[in-house]
TrEMBL record:
Principal localisation: membrane
Record flagged with keyword tRNA-binding: no
Location of the Amino acid transporter transmembrane domain: 4-261
One annotated GO biological process: amino acid transport
Organism: Mikania micrantha
Residue ranges crossing the lipid bilayer per the database entry: 43-67, 88-104, 202-221, 241-259
GO CC, any one term: membrane
Organism lineage: Eukaryota, Viridiplantae, Streptophyta, Embryophyta, Tracheophyta
UniProt-recorded name of the protein: Amino acid transporter transmembrane domain-containing protein
Keywords of the record: Amino-acid transport, Membrane, Transmembrane, Transmembrane helix, Transport
Localization (cell): Membrane
Pfam families with a match to the protein in the record: Aa_trans
Statement: the UniProt record of this protein carries the keyword Cytoplasm: no
Length: 262
């Protein structure tokens, strides 16, 4: 939040209301920090964006695979061997992105934001609803202050990896700040852009935090220390299979557009 508020005032410089426009994050860095920081921040920005797009690719492939596995489990039972390789779905995702990238100014289509918000709200609500249903039916799972206990099957190295993976998920959820200036450049100047963007950013972060915290806390309450990394793709829930499919379809649609924006 603090980082985003600072960036909104960097869209115009030296004055955040009447100054010269900085159309990109890199323009804002160069205007406010100089040439050396411009190069260093450029490396950092493109490095982070590369990591984010890789994350989008793998997450979308996992959700696509989860749809296929969900239908397999429904047809053959929960103990069936429904292993699916993600590589095929990564290739499918790449082909779709190549096609979408041919659409002129696809990333500037205003309905994208509306669709993304609807998709995010839908799959988050499904996860929250399923968690509440599981808690109501089976009670709260076994939880401990430090999470899953170390054992022969769960080493300290694995615990450290899952901890850092969780921190990465948090960063992944708020990755928009790296293109905040580019988003702000799409606003009309009839009202000061920085004031509009501050309100939009605060609203977006608040809404995202509420939904993601509910998913995290209710998911942990439902499964305890055995909670999967993603209960929509890790098959904490098997049924109703069609609802799991809908949630994963929403994730796929959301990330298809988000990849183009990035």
């Amino acid at each position: 939040m603090f980082n985003s508020i600072l960036l909104t005032d960097c869209y115009r410089s030296p004055d955040p209301v009447t100054g010269t426009r900085n159309y990109t994050y890199m323009d804002a860095v160069k205007s406010n920090l100089g040439t050396l920081q411009y190069k260093l921040c450029g490396i950092a920005q493109y490095g982070v964006l590369t990591g984010i797009t890789i994350g989008y690719t793998t997450t979308t492939a996992i959700s696509m695979a989860a749809i296929k596995k969900s239908n397999c489990f429904h047809k053959h039972g929960h103990k069936a061997d429904c292993r699916v390789h993600n590589n095929t779905f990564m290739v499918i995702f790449a082909i779709i992105q190549i096609i979408l990238s041919q659409v002129p100014n696809f990333h500037k289509l205003s309905p994208l934001s509306v669709i993304a918000a609807i998709m995010s709200f839908t799959y988050s609500s499904i996860g929250i609803g399923l968690s509440i249903a599981k808690i109501s039916g089976e009670g709260i799972g076994k939880t401990t202050l430090t999470g899953k206990q170390l054992s022969k099957d769960f080493t300290s190295m694995e615990k450290m990896w899952t901890t850092f993976s969780a921190l990465g998920d948090v960063a992944f959820a708020y990755s928009f700040c790296f293109i905040l200036i580019e988003i702000q450049d799409t606003l009309k100047s009839s009202l000061p852009e920085n004031k509009q963007m501050k309100k939009a950013t605060a609203t977006g972060i608040l809404a995202s935090t509420v939904f993601y915290m509910l998913c995290g806390m209710l998911g942990y309450a439902a499964f305890g220390n055995d909670a999967p990394g993603n209960f929509l793709t890790g098959f904490g829930f098997y049924d109703p299979f069609w609802l799991i499919d809908i949630a994963n379809i929403c994730i796929v649609v959301h990330l298809l557009g988000a990849y183009q924006v990035k």
